[in-house]
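Backbones bend. Our protein:
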Amino acid sequence: MNTAAHHAPPLWQLLQACAQAVQAVRSGRSLTAQLEAVPAGLRPGTQALSFHVLRQLGRATALRAQLAKKPPPAAADALLCTVLALAWDEAQAPYPVHTLVNQAVEAARRLRQTQGQAPFINACFRRFLRERDALVAATDSEVTARWNHPAWWVERLQADHPDHWMALLAQAQTPAPMTLRVNRSATTVTHVQSALEAQGVTSTPVGASGLQLHKALPVQQLPGFMQGQVSVQDAAAQVAAPLLMQGLDPEQPWRVLDACAAPGGKTGHLLEISPNAQVLALDVDAQRCQRIHQNLERLNVRAEVRAADAAQPAQWWDGQPFDAILLDAPCTAAGIVRRHPDVRWLRRAEDSAQLAKTQAQLLKVLWPLLKVGGRLLYCTCSVFKAEGDAVVDSFLQRNTDAQFCPSPRHLIPGSSPVGLPVGDNPLGEHDGFYYALLEKRPTSA
């Protein structure tokens, strides 16, 4: 007997949990936070279905509007849209469509919030089964249904990246690969690749120190993970540390600030490259600082980790200037939406402008902390120009002692950026990022 299958939760229960996740995201709660509240036995299946649903929620919402012009109560609406997202494209449906529909009606009957809506939900699904092709065709012209992103998001990508906007939207609909960063102070890319092959997992070298796996593995099964030989980190994120530290003697005790450091992936990478660096890693959230400590401990490297607001240097700076500053600024996370499919539904059109003010303020207050000849790397995991070029260009106009150094700026799929310290291997399939490396020049007398 297949024990795992025997103990698998019933589909109606997974659909309930998934619908509750959709309802939570619609109310502004992140999927990550919602999944933490799901019972452990339900969590893996709920996460897998939720990712699928959130990638198809635009189409599902449009279909629900065809079936019921007036939105039903929130819980019923979430269940309807959950199943429509899973069932509208039969080729991608994770279960037979009739099974999904039958189990959805069962879920409605068993949940107190939707019991009274069960006949209505059943009627909607029966109509969907009868008229599916016509209903789908009726939604084809809607931007949100076609691209499964808010219309404002699609319009912004069209304006910001006229040659790549479709590729960005298409990428957001696909699961992200697992990419490893190899700690080259402890092992080699070739050695890790061979160890993976011994486990039946093939991989492709990416960037200077990366391996993109052709099949994801639990981190506990990664060769050398607990010994700090490898970390999980997207290829684009692996650009930060080598870009900031290129040309600097790795043996010198450089003073380095990682201004928004959690969960510590880039902090660890900085210390793999420059083991003698004196790194101060800040994060405003004390709980997230614990994640930094855990990552550094696994890598067997040390940094000073402090829970503090990078925008308030008076509270944490000792007055000694830094040789290098990494500013991975808070952003909309529009470049990592394939890993976090809820982001597109959580963000609002005005968020970029509001975050750009925070980003500009961080640049303003951290720049005086950099010594002359030092460098600051500004980066975000956003593909919106309001959080990249617009922030940096405005800063350069106001600060004549800041010089832009070769760096990628908007690093997006399908582009060919300059200033990438990636070694002999291209980055492969990577997230969307922004990088601007700035050097402080002497001020003219």
User: Anything to note?
Assistant: DSSP finds 18 helices and eleven strands in the chain. The chain has a mean pLDDT of 95.
